[in-house]
């Protein structure tokens, strides 16, 4: 069985999809988000090698907890789609057990090359939900915030819509960055073009991962930026969630 590069595992997650979740954080990411709280996931060669068999064996012991809460397994990161063939094998085994499957992706590696799409399509057939991180609607601001432009990321949102894959959009609200009514309105307009979005989650920027930047010897780029106020979070939720009323 295939092996994946795994950063860590959370056995009873409550914020990465419906119900209680077994959350697998994969290693490797192409984005360099200024607010990243897991910069130790960036390096593709780090982490621990684990086989699909090892993971499935561990997951089996938690099945009663998931199934009693309509939960399941979420693969996050890092960026799980960097290990799409591993993901395919894992989800194939999980579906044999009737497990609800979720991918948490920022779509940084999405492209329409035949090889990638072929594997992605196979994975999506086994995927019940995608948590899609849309960091910023403006390409230049997105590049400033994450190191990459967002054209291919928005293209993945459209692709998931084409495939009618259920999506929850996640948006990190960063004061001085993504917390801007004009950009929030533009993001809301974009989401309104999609027919597969079931939920929009506004995630307030926080500083819980700053110590990891320090441990890695990295300068934290948002030094001095404080989390958004409750009013600004509510404002963002109101602007973005207007499109969910269908």
Topology overview:
Layout: E1 3-13, E2 21-26, E3 48-51, H1 52-60, H2 63-68, E4 72-76, H3 84-96, E5 100-105, H4 114-124, E6 129-133, H5 139-146, H6 151-162, E7 167-173, H7 181-191, E8 197-204, H8 210-215, H9 230-241
Parallel strand pairs: 2-4, 4-5, 5-6, 6-7, 7-8
Antiparallel strand pairs: 1-2, 1-3
Helix pairs in contact: 1-3, 3-4, 7-9
Main attributes of the structure:
single chain, alpha/beta, globular, Organic_radical_activase, EC 1.97.1.4, S-adenosyl-L-methionine, 4Fe-4S, Pyruvate formate-lyase-activating enzyme
Describe this protein's structure.
This protein is α/β, with parallel strands linked by helices and 246 residues long. Helices cover 36% and strands 21% of the residues. It is built from 9 helices and 8 strands. Strands 3-1-2-4-5-6-7-8 form an 8-stranded mixed sheet. α3 (84-96) links the parallel β4 and β5 (100-105). The longest helix is centred in the middle third of the chain and has 13 residues, at 84-96. The mean pLDDT is 94. Pfam families: Radical_SAM (PF04055). Activation of pyruvate formate-lyase under anaerobic conditions by generation of an organic free radical, using S-adenosylmethionine and reduced flavodoxin as cosubstrates to produce 5'-deoxy-adenosine. Keywords: 4Fe-4S, Cytoplasm, Iron, Iron-sulfur, Metal-binding, Oxidoreductase, Pyruvate, S-adenosyl-L-methionine. This is Pyruvate formate-lyase-activating enzyme.
């Amino acid at each position: 069985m295939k092996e994946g590069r795994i950063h860590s595992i959370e056995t009873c997650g409550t914020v990465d999809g419906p119900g209680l979740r077994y959350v697998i954080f994969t290693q490797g990411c192409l984005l360099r988000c200024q607010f990243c709280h897991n910069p130790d996931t960036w390096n593709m060669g780090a982490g621990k090698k684990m086989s699909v068999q090892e993971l499935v064996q561990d997951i089996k012991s938690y099945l009663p907890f998931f199934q009693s809460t309509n939960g399941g397994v979420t693969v996050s990161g890092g960026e799980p789609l960097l290990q799409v063939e591993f993901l395919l094998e894992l989800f194939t085994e999980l579906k044999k057990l009737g497990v609800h499957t979720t991918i948490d992706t920022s779509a940084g590696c999405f492209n329409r090359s035949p090889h990638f799409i072929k594997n992605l399509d196979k994975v999506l057939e086994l995927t019940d939900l995608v948590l899609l991180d849309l960091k910023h609607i403006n390409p230049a601001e997105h590049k400033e915030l994450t190191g990459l432009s967002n054209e291919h990321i928005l293209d993945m949102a459209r692709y998931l819509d084409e495939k009618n894959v259920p999506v929850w959009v996640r948006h990190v609200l960063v004061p001085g960055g993504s917390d801007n009514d004009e950009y929030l309105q533009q993001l809301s307009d974009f989401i309104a073009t999609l027919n597969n979005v079931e939920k929009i989650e506004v995630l307030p920027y926080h500083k819980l991962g700053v110590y990891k930047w320090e441990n890695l010897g990295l300068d934290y780029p948002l030094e001095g930026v404080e989390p958004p106020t409750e009013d600004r979070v509510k404002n963002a939720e109101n602007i973005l969630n207007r499109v969910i009323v269908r």
